[in-house]
Specification:
This protein is of the alpha+beta class. The protein has helices at about 15-25, 25-30, 35-40, 45-65, 95-100; strands at about 5-15, 80, 90, 105-110, 115-125. About 40% of the residues lie in helices and about 30% in strands. The strands form 2 sheets. It has a 3-stranded antiparallel sheet with strand order 1-5-4. A two-stranded antiparallel ribbon has the order 2-3. It contains 5 helices and 5 strands. α1 (about 15-25) packs across α4 and α3 (about 35-40) packs antiparallel against α4 (about 45-65). It has one domain (about 5-125): 4'-phosphopantetheinyl transferase domain (Ribosomal Protein L22, Chain A, Alpha-Beta Complex), CATH 3.90.470.20.
Length: about 120
Amino acid sequence: MAVVKAIGIDIIEIERIKNVIDKWGDRFLRKVYTPWEISYCQEKAYPEYSFAARFAVKEAVFKALGGGTEIGIKWTSIEVVNHRSGKPMIKMGGKVKEIVGEGEILISISHTHRYAVAQALLLEG
């Protein structure tokens, strides 16, 4: 049986992410998202929904891990991908792998036209 070590949750206004992308463009996108995430989101009819949802996931994971950039985790060390079934999951890189070790991070994402929300569960290995 998996033991939950920590949880994180985040909610963000989609308009806020849209405004940041409009202002900073590729500079923001390359800092926060992997090339695969950028390509995936830009293929959507409303890319800001997918960008906001992935931003919320990254923030939720940071919270579950006890910190983000201030503890040396890069935004791009958390990549949100989809399992063949459509279930969202993350690929861990760099410091995230070190912290999680043999554990696992489960995520859940949802959004409306106005908000995106994500939850992350850090499971012990």
